[in-house]
From TrEMBL:
It comes from the Bacteria. This is 4-hydroxybenzoate polyprenyltransferase. The chain crosses the membrane at residues 28-47. Keywords: Membrane, Transmembrane, Transmembrane helix.
Length: 78
């Protein structure tokens, strides 16, 4: 038998397993839930801002096109 095997066997026999010390408990569950809710909220905010910027860009392009057409119409023709 190797030294590591003996050490591992002694460590297993000498330690008692307490499930309350290795589980996250209520605090871990609440923290995970709050983190998930926060990430979902940030996702919704990101989508809202991206959509708003997309609409602003489209409106600016439409205004630039209208001003370009109005500028082309007012130029004198020779």
């Amino acid at each position: 038998m190797s030294v590591m095997g003996v050490v591992q066997r002694l460590a297993e026999e000498s330690t008692e397993f307490d499930p309350n010390q290795v589980t996250p408990g209520v605090e871990g569950f609440l923290f995970t839930g709050l983190m998930a809710a926060g990430i979902i909220a940030l996702g919704f905010l990101l989508v809202t801002r991206l959509r708003r910027n997309m609409y602003r860009h489209e409106v600016r392009e439409e205004i630039a096109a209208e001003l370009g057409e109005a500028g082309a119409d007012s130029e004198p023709r020779s």
